[in-house]
Design brief:
Its EC number is 2.7.13.3. With 502 residues, this protein is an alpha+beta fold. Among the domains are: 102 residues, Beta-Lactamase, CATH 3.30.450; 71 residues, Helix Hairpins; 156 residues, Heat Shock Protein 90. It is built from 15 helices and 17 strands. Bound molecules: adenosine-5'-diphosphate.
């Protein structure tokens, strides 16, 4: 019914008032009765405790039931209904019995006497809180989606990175302005075409198509680096990530990609590496002669029984060895990165190597105790010198980062077809945040810096690279203040393999 409803239809209502009230009461969440001018609420009854009931007439009903924001709207609608003697109907906020804000759809009918004067209003209200909340959430999320869309547009337009999307037929479905500019193409020329059709060389297009296949099959992103000549800028290096985009069923429906030009970063890195490598080389020659002078002088001091000079030269020799180790570390990094480190695979027994490491350690390190657990015969096909280097590095770190007199524990077990070596110390330990980063090149933990423990953060990087090139893993576990354990694994040889190789 509307405001223009003829009053005579409403007039008939009091005739069947009782039945009408019963029906409304049964089907509504709330029923209420108001005085002719709505100044007094005679009665309010609410099912399920949605609103608190009122048995006695009250004057302050508007503050009790109507949310402040909607009070004026309610008052306006009431005024309008009184003037027209028409139905009051409004959706508005209410104060629920539990103190929360609810929503009702409220309808009130004027009951008229014979002269057509209003005797009272009879109202019913439905609790529409849930529907309102859903509507609000929908509206909010629509707003967010719109905002997200605008944000995505700005990002993909403004970024110098290349942003694109492929469908499962390897065709571009989205290309951002940076990529269009790089290709010198318009959207219409580029979208809907494959890599090959967009001018990629066959090897390059083929490589990316196989990567797309991999992303679809594994449902995981992949990251790669590719270098190729640019028409104007010359040879460039690009770092790219292909990420799966899933549909509602969780299947990959397209592949989103981003590519960044990292040529300048690469060039700077190369320059830095070349510099470090050159400095290390240059330092090595004078260092070698200083070492031999110190050795000769030490011998002469020993012969002439000059114990003070001999002691000093002994210490100088130790410092020089430390310097040599550092310089060798840098040279190894530069060799590794320029691909000059060869892994010379040969079968050997890890238990024998471990015994040698034990003897060398006892002969050279006196500040700590060592506990090497017995290692079972474990054949690996690996580069013995490189694995020795990993061992030595982990042991010297355990010594370096734990107090004098504490014990370093070394063990080797075979777990799941892999040999697992562990080096445990009782030292300062490592924070959880640092653990995954220890194996990055030049990464050092702040505490090490603060405690003035010298180093360049390349030992673990070298270990990790060497272990990875053997098909193994390396990681650390630690509890700060309670020491650390470093692990590395190597694939063990199967019995048949050993015979073939030997
Ligand atoms: P360096 O020891 O020359 O700094 P590494 O690459 O060998 O470089 O180690 C990287 C960092 O890892 C070190 O700076 C140190 O903070 C931390 N670290 C390595 N081994 C241990 C250990 N056994 N206990 C605590 N911290 C360690």
């Amino acid at each position: 019914m509307t405001e223009s409803e003829p009053a005579d239809r409403i007039k008939r209502l009091p005739d069947s008032e009782e039945r009408f009230r019963a029906l409304v009461t049964a089907t509504s969440d709330v029923v209420y009765r108001m005085s002719p001018d709505w100044s007094i609420m005679h009665h309010l009854e609410s099912s399920d405790g949605f609103l608190s009931d009122t048995g006695e007439p009250i004057a302050d009903w508007i503050d009790k039931y109507i949310h402040q924001t909607d009070q004026q709207t309610v008052k306006d609608a009431i005024r309008q209904a009184i003037i027209n003697k028409s139905i009051f109907q409004l959706e508005h906020r209410v104060l629920a019995a539990d103190g929360s804000i609810g929503w009702t759809y409220s309808v009130a009918v004027p009951l008229l006497d014979e002269k057509g004067e209003i005797i009272e209003w009879f109202g019913s209200a439905r609790d529409v809180t849930d529907r309102k909340k859903t509507e609000e959430a929908l509206l909010h999320s629509r707003g967010e989606t719109e905002q997200q869309k605008r944000l995505n547009e700005i990002i993909t337009t403004a970024t110098p990175d290349l942003v694109y999307m492929f469908d499962l037929d390897y065709k571009f479905t989205f290309v951002n302005p940076a990529l269009l500019t790089m290709w010198g193409k318009t959207w219409d020329e580029a979208v809907g075409k494959t890599l090959l059709e967009n001018g990629y060389e066959p090897w390059h297009a083929e490589m990316h198509e196989r990567e797309i296949d991999e992303v679809v099959a594994t449902k995981k992103p992949i990251r790669g680096e590719v270098s190729f000549p640019h028409a104007v800028l010359g040879r460039r290096v690009y770092d790219y990530i292909f990420t799966p985009v899933f549909n509602a069923q969780g299947e990959v429906e397209s592949i989103a990609g981003t590519t960044r030009d990292i040529s300048d970063i690469k060039e700077n890195e190369q320059r830095k590496n070349d510099f470090i490598s050159m400095v290390s080389h240059e330092l090595k020659t004078p260092l070698t002669s200083v070492i031999s002078y110190v050795q000769i002088s030490k011998k002469r001091a020993d012969q002439s029984k000059d114990t003070i000079a001999a002691g000093m030269l002994e210490r100088a020799g130790k410092q020089l060895s430390k310097m040599t180790r550092m310089i060798n570390g840098f040279l190894n990094v530069s060799r590794l990165e320029s691909g000059r480190i060869q892994i010379d695979h040969k079968p050997f027994d890890l238990a024998v190597l471990m015994k040698e490491v034990y003897e060398d350690t006892l002969a050279t390190i006196f500040s700590h105790a060592f506990e090497f657990e017995p290692c079972p015969e474990t054949w690996v096909n690996a580069d013995r010198d490189k694995i020795n280097q990993v061992f030595t590095n982990l042991i010297s770190n355990a010594v370096k980062y734990s107090p004098t007199g504490s014990t370093v524990h070394v063990a080797c077990e075979v777990i799941g077809g892999k040999a697992r070596v562990s080096v445990r110390d009782e030292g300062m330990g490592i924070n959880k945040e640092d653990l995954p980063r220890l194996f990055e090149r030049y990464y050092r933990v702040k505490e090490a810096e603060i405690n003035h423990i010298s180093g360049f953060g390349i030992g673990l990087y070298l270990c990790a690279e060497l272990v990875k090139r053997h098909g193994g893993d390396i990681w650390a576990e630690s509890e700060p203040g309670h020491g650390s354990t470093f692990y590395f694994t190597l694939p063990v040889m199967q019995a048949g393999e050993q015979h073939e190789m030997l």
